[in-house]
Amino acid sequence: MSRNEEEDSGFGALRDKISRTRGRDYWRSLEELSRTDSFEEFFIQEFPRQAQPLGEGVDRRDFVKLMGASVAFAGLTACNRPAEKIIPYVRTPEGVVPGQPLFFASAMPLAGVATGVLVESHMGRPTKIEGNPDHPSSLGATDPFMQAAVLSLYDPDRSQTVRHLGEISTWSEFIAAMQPVLRDAQANGGAGIRILTQTVNSPTLGAQIQQFLTAHPGARWHQWEPAGRDNAREGGRLAFGAYVNTVYHFDKANVVLSLDANFLNCGPGNLRYARDFMSRRRVRKGTTSMNRLYLVESAPSSTGSVADHRLPLKPSAVEAVARAVAAGLGAGGAAAPSEHAAWVAAVLRDLQANRGASIVVAGDEQPPVVHQLAHAMNQTLGNIGTTVTITDPVEVAPANQLASLRQLIADIRGGSVRHLIMLGGNPVFDAPADFEFRSALTLVPVRVHLSSHYDETSELSHWHIPETHFLENWSDARGHDGTVSIIQPLIAPLYNGRSAHEVLAVLNGIDLPGYDIVRKNWQGQGDAAAFEVVWRKWLNDGIIAGSALPARAGSANGNAAPPAPAAAGGIELQFRSDPTIFDGRFANIGWLQELPKPITKITWDNALLVSPRTAARLNIAPEDELVNERTTILVRIHYHGRQLELPVWIVPGHADDAATVHYGYGRSRSGRLGDHTGFNVYPIRFSDGMHVGHGATLVRTGTAYKIACTQEHQSLGEGGDRGIIRPTTLAGFLGNPEFALTKFDRPESAEANESMVPAWSYTADSNGNPLNAWGMVIDPGTCIGCNGCVIACQSENNIAVVGKDQVWRQREMHWLRIDRYYSGSPENPQIYNQPIPCMQCENAPCEPVCPVEATVHSAEGLNDMTYNRCVGTRYCSNNCPYKVRRFNFYQYSDYFTPSLKPMRNPDVTVRTRGVMEKCTYCVQRINAAKITAEREDRPVRDGEIVTACQQACPTEAITFGNINDPTSRVAQLKKQPHNYALLAELNTRPRTTYLGVVRNPNPEMKAE
Amino acid sequence: MAQIFHRSANTVARVSIFGAVFFIGFVLWFIGGIVRAPYATNQGVVRVQPVPFSHQHHVAGLGIDCRYCHTSVETSNFAGIPPTSTCMNCHAQIWTNASMLAPVRQSYASNTPLVWSRVHRLADFVHFNHSIHVNKGIGCVSCHGRVDKMALMSQAEPLTMEWCISCHRHPEENIRPRNQVFNMAWEAPDQKTLGPRLVKQYRVKDAMSLTSCDTCHY
């Protein structure tokens, strides 16, 4: 595109505006950057959509319903409260102390990899998930999917009964119906029986399937996972001649090159990788070195948001960079002339200078050859054996799942499949569009589907069996390095569900409960006499120690196939699993639906992500007036002869001439929340373009579409002007470690102490007992914006889900939000993440304005919110400069759905309508630890209190503790030279402070 | 022009203005009384229970310690309601045929719990922890009254916030030696000197800390 054309387009205009703007170095959205008048108006209001709270009018039926309920409840208040029942045990189970939670180790399997968890159980009810510190894939951290597992357990829309032809049936009828099938199978060797599973990595399930296949040689087993890792598997096979598993040790790498790999927030071991990677980026006083991350990708990801050098390229162009770097290293292939030669050359020099201490990692969506080249580069650099370990696969039967599913469809169409047993998964919804799985499935005479919900596939199956949740069944699974965990149930199946193990046991003719199946499988492999002791240890630890897979021998073959000819023009479509609802399986989980997606901050929807330049060139950008109403327009995608309309969303830093879509939305049978939310992208996901599709055209439709995006919600004002985020480079830090400090951050300066009220002392009470002064330090430099903390907070503090319309009105209830700032050009900005909980100000602006003293200071400096006193004036929220207070505009908490009641944390009040709430620093955890300490007559130990957000964080970006104790970790961090307070000029004296962000760009690449 | 109001209207007006002050005062007094009355607080209300369990008999008559049944009072926020098996520890041996105990035997035999009616209930937004009170020298009797004299259990104190706060402001008026916490009949020889001494000795926080909202509400 020539300069002139650019001038004509909207992008040119935007660029002009930016170049005229001064002093705005950090921005949250393009609208903030370009600053139209209407945006200004929108921006300064806290709740700009207050005027029309009810949206549509109330019709007669609703009115009568509401009035009817009011009359009914009015009658109730006249009676005295009935006595509450109290029900003790008949025999108390061993270890249970009423009122005290117990923790059990288990593991959560997802897409073929398990992560160890500790599950908090209150009197038999699992209420909260934490990471298992002993599990190598977790080290105590959790991601949003793990945190939301409790909600998926108590999901009221789970399937509750066996169904036959859609009618309610029973498990024993299913077993009876299977008997003739199994008799026939005995006779004919199982010909015509097909088992379709998701990626299986449970050793026991694998053994059961093998047993069935051995007994029935005619039967076949297929695996299908829409967000599968076929490319990584095939790439490993190209390099090593066999399927392998790759384990990275980011803590040992000085330089990392990521080829479209979002390794910090996606895929096997991401929690561990985030911890390891960030262990080399914690800049403290005296730090002189950091690791460095080079990254090539098209849509900005969490990993991209912390990269030192991020090169936005369309997905198909990543291969060329991989080939250029590989050729430069002599790892195979020939160098092709590249337009990014300077970038590549700098990366090359850095990699060569760090042989044996670098990592090249390829993304799961990249074609196999990129994975092969990555292996070859790691081989050439001597990384294999030091920073990279190659092991045997963690899956039971690694396979090319796309080919496997293709074979299954061919067999069905060929008429050779008579019984299809689907254990989990939802292929009718998520199989490639050209496979036409729906029509193929109806050709199978007997179809059985085991599934947690009565979903799109169940609807077309003869038999539907409700599947147990992993918190309800026995199983086992391997972590990213092969470590085995035994999955133990926390609660009996809520709805008489069955696990895949139990269904397979029926097929194998041995009807055993899941416990016996799993236990027998392991008992057979070891010393039977000592087994009980070992078994108990495994269950207690949550892992089988020493079960990680050993490194395998072999060297990578770098002879890559020559590059394929460049594909036809048009827009490149990139398909990704959704960052919050994954491949669609979590569509009915309100917590995940309402979670602002990393980078885009969109909730309850998926969108077509494009770069500002591409949007301008194709004229698909929404008009300014629409943008400020948080509305965008629908764009029609023409691709492979199909059409699909999606809302367009402009993302700074996205590669040009490419668009990203996330699959998983648009379910029709997921439950009350997930149905008809977002847009189903699977109908344009074809088997020849599972991750990247070429030749799409995008056409503006002009239809407006509301998007609930939290980007501009609860803004602290313009980031640059008020110094909200304060970054520098490593060189800048070494030159001036106090780079982040202003005169207000220096305690000795007069400005920092200006106050009309004498300072309060938090050191001791009037009885002479030492007090604690709780404080928090957040290191945004290590925050990847993964949202683990946000959902952990939601789970711990019983935070309500409000729905898309309410989010659109800025009424989301998350106590902790992650602000995302950009700086630099919209083509390739630097991205910063900043978690914002309540600052717990010592001079809190919210306190003096409350007319009923519902928010007051505690003796230890917490800014208490007392729900039962609050009358809902919202003055406090109005006066909060950090915008961390949340108001219950409606009765958001669901008091009545029975299955959600046991999910709540009994230590936290469930709030009602009309009440303000906010982050409490997890005061329930503080009080529990204080009471334990006082009972033992000792001070609270450092690290004894861990807030929910801190516990979930994979990168340990959040530190909490007592700042009165000079040896505590939080006090040490507060002494760091780059520790600063947000809006210190207001003299609010926040207890939560931040560290300046330090990045480590390559000095050689400064010019770029 | 004739007078619109009769002369007596002056008196009516004076009385009603004067009376309104008293009327408003009366309404406030009435509301204040109602919320503190047993009608609202359930103080002294005896609930129907599946078994007419007598604390008087078991505590005063037999001398069973509180902790024999309420096992978690020293370690947990919840003191614990005894499982049926605790009852059966003795009643498998004595009163084995008493008709009064039939529900207990039935519960034990059929493995279905007894369903008691709660006597001491706090609102959901209050978090009370038994263990810290017991460990800081607050006797059972301070909140639960002379349980050893109750044939049928009832709530001895109003359990209003006003009542809780009165002790959180002045714990020295109720604190007792730790070894007398479970003693129903203990009387302080001289609470005026003993109280402040124990407050210091047990490191009880000051009123400022004890009346911070987050001590109970979160």
Could you explain how this protein is built, in words?
The complex is a heterodimer of chains A (1008) and B (218). With 1008 residues, chain A is an alpha/beta fold. Chain A folds into four domains: 162-228 and 397-541, 3-Layer(aba) Sandwich (Rossmann fold); 245-391, Dimethylsulfoxide Reductase, domain 2 (3-Layer(aba) Sandwich), CATH 3.40.228; 565-709, Barwin-like endoglucanases; 719-749 and 776-1003, Alpha-Beta Plaits, CATH 3.30.70. Chain A has 33 helices and 40 strands. In chain A, strand 3 and strand 4 (113-122) form a beta hairpin. Chain B has 218 residues and is mostly helical. Chain B folds into three domains: 9-41, no CATH class; 55-81 and 119-215, no CATH class; 82-115, no CATH class. In chain B, helix 5 (84-91) crosses helix 6. At the A-B interface, strand 2 and helix 31 of A face strand 1, helix 7 and helix 11 of B. Strand 2 (85-86) of chain A pairs antiparallel with strand 1 (116-117) of chain B.
Outline the low-pLDDT stretches of chain A: 1-8, 51-55
Q: How would a textbook summarize the main sheet of chain A?
A: 7 strands, mixed
Domains counted in the coordinates of chain B: how many? 3
User: What shape does the CA trace of chain A take?
Assistant: globular
Helix % of chain B is: 40-55%
Just give the CATH class of the largest domain in chain A: Alpha Beta
- Number-wise, the strands of chain B total 1
CATH topology of the largest domain in chain A: Alpha-Beta Plaits
List the chains of the largest interface with their residue counts. A-B, 46 and 48 residues
Detail the poorly predicted runs of chain B: none
Order of helices and strands of chain B: HHHHHHEHHHHH
Helix % of chain A is 25-40%
